[in-house]
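Reopening this one. Same input as before:
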Amino acid sequence: MSSRSELVYELKSLRKGRGLAGRIEGRVGPFLRSAAGVTENDAVEVIRTKVSARLSELAAHLPDDLRLAVLAAFAIETEARQPLYQDRVRWAAARVDRDPRTVRRRVDEAIDLLAELSVSTQTSSATSSLVSGWHTAELRAWMTLNRSRAECFEVRTIVADSEGVASVDLALSGYANSSQIDVDRPDYSTVTIFQGGILRDHWIESSDRIGMTLELPHTLHRGERHQIALRFESRNEPSFYICVPRAPCDYFEVSVRFNDRIPEDPRVLEGAFQRDVTDPGFQGQPSKVDEAGEIKHRFRNLTPGLSYGLRWSANSRSGAQSH
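Same output, byte for byte:
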């Protein structure tokens, strides 16, 4: 079984009985302990606090109905601390005006998402701390769709978290599929470096994502800041601009300027799962195009592995992601 499926199993076992409000000795499995940062020396109440805090933190990224259902299921929601799981389900059902069977399905869905989110963020955090040695202090992006080709300018300020950072790995998603990429051409990725480094390597990570290594002009010392400016050019008309940070990102600001086909229902995605970006069933938060034909939004303290940015209607389902 994968770590995700193991975590799902442990969470479904933990919701039984009184959930986290009851006896948890031996009921918090190794995968959940790892996800919550539980150590061998932690007392029972410390374990309860850590697991409750971690599940609450992850649940904050879920839609309201799923968040309420899963917090009730584990007896984290104070008002739902009933002695039996079915009692907590009935409490949640009354709160969301649904029958208990529907709420049980939502609890299962929420647990699957919590496990996915936990594994994704743990993997991203481990990768960023052990491999990259840097994080993004600030990322500003401007995309324009009022030309024959969509263009995006990114200015990124990075900070070295370790000594001797000589290069950074970035990724570009959604501008072209793999059948359109000629990896032998230096301009395959339609990327222009304006400031901050030299494009030294590139590879296809997936059908819609290109990885890039940018060599810095000098090696960074721990705590040193460095600015990188890039331009991306799209072969298709994008329908989103999303930042999915691999390493922590303190601040992200994005502005999209549209052509005369102003989208009717633009949306803000904040802390969404990557699969939600192109899922028409995931709504996000409504946004508004201003009188200049632009949408602007700001995000702070982005979680690695989650998606932040803008989505809109377009003729093409293509888009752009920065990592």
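So the earlier flakiness isn't reproducible anymore. For the record, The chain is about 30% helix and 30% strand.
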